[in-house]
Each structure stands twice: as C-alpha cells, then as structure tokens.
Target: Stress-responsive transcriptional regulator
Amino acid sequence: MAQKRLYKSRDNRMISGVMGGIAEYFNVDATLVRVLYCLFSFFSAAFPGIVVYIILALVIPERPSQTRRDSHDEWSEY
Model:
C-alpha cells in the first residue's frame, strides 16, 4: 500500500497552494481549512501564523504534474 503524500495543490490555490494541499490530503473543503488557518492566525496575534505559512510553503513540495498519454497511444492497439 502506497503512503499518502502531502503536496501543495495545483488546482485549489489562493497564494501558493498550501491550504489547498492540506485540504486535499485530509479530504476536506479548502475553504474550511483556510477559515481555520485565519482564526488560528488571528488568535495568535497573526505573526506565528504567517511564519508557519511561509515555512510550509517552502517545505511542502509541489504536486508532480500528471503525464497524459499521447493521443497516438490510445489508437495504437487498434
């Protein structure tokens, strides 16, 4: 069984895709993750939340691009 990996989202991003990637990893709505992050940042005087976001943006890798099959490959079987 393959281990689930955390990546920044390519599709669901507002700034760098960190919150979208966390939402995809836990299979929850990205808006909920963003709201919780904003609440966390607000109640911690904002500074630690910004630092955590910057660190996550640097540490979490970008999701690898999906390689699409060439259209010629689909017809090669016929």
Summary: The two ends are 34 Å apart (CA to CA). The chain has a mean pLDDT of 82. Residues 30-43 form the longest helix (14 residues).
